[in-house]
Amino acid sequence: MDLSTARNRISQVDRKLVELLNERARLSLNVGAAKRQTLKEQGEDGEPEVYVPGQEKRVFEKVRGLNQGPLSGESVCAIYREIMSASISLQSEVSVGYLGPPGTFSHQAATKRFGDSLAYMSYAKIEDVITAVAKEEVTYGLVPIENSTFGVVVQTLDSFVQQPTVKIRAEVFMPVTQSLLSRYQLSAIRKVYSHPQAFGQSRQWLDQHLPNAARVEVSSTAKAAELAAAENYAAAISSEVCASLYHLDVVAKDITTASDNTTRFFVLGQSSDNPTGDDKTLLMFTVDHREPGALCSALDVFAKHKINQTAINSRPSRQRQWHYMFFVEIIGHELDDNVAKALKEIKAYCLDLVVLGSYPHQYY
Predict the structure, then answer these.
(1) Which H or E run contains 88?
(2) Which helix (H) or strand (E) holds 360?
(3) pLDDT tens, 266-297?
């Protein structure tokens, strides 16, 4: 096939693609109308959920299975991410809150999950994002929950204690590569700004290459880049995306301790999605610490009902000294029969029990 013929064929395919994309968009609007009609018939007010992670997961799995190349499965899913983002924006005005400023890994994870067609709102602190969701100032929020190198993000757990009404709708995994950004050469750097998680992920590199530089913790890696750009002899541990956003040089690339460094995020909303058959649930509860074995008795309920636990964390309850809230992630949805039975039984051992949400298990 010669060049002219190939280009003509591409033009023909493009015409068909545009027609099909708009046909899909019209069908998406029909889906939104059907959802509203269902709510009306049920006597419920408000807008239907436009972001349905279970359906999204099924779409991605389907298009991966249909793909015969030469495009990779990741490329096809990236294209469909934007198609679905545009469809969501047609159905409703959707806003997504994230830990800012622009360029943070939270911002990148949010656009990875929701695409470029929605409105994004930047917040200075994780608790501000969760509060905005609780007050319905934004439709959804995205917050980091844990890092594979440095562990749980305590600010998120503490915010759940203060705002227990928000619900987890989905989880997002994002590979995280930290870099050292500055306007100066390595030998001239006297101060390094970053988020506590980023410092933890890069501690070994800093100990070896900048052992005498002051380390200043700030609210986000993007805020660190912003400060480093305005200060002499300062640097930031941040993403390469922030280098271009804040006009900094990449002094050192990939300074994280682990090559597979990954952060997991939660998408928050007013409700959780329906069961998919492959879900997780995060619980928050406290027990009577005066009762010997109270926590053990509570956890034994999961074993009795053959429910696997994937994570256990604790944070001060702020109710009184040395009193803790426990966060337990389990396999299953709160509406699954065995999980529902376990949640009913575990109340006998818990002073408080909150289901923070059930969400599809993500593999991509």
Answers:
(1) helix 73-91
(2) strand 350-360
(3) 999 999 999 999 999 999 999 877 777 888 98
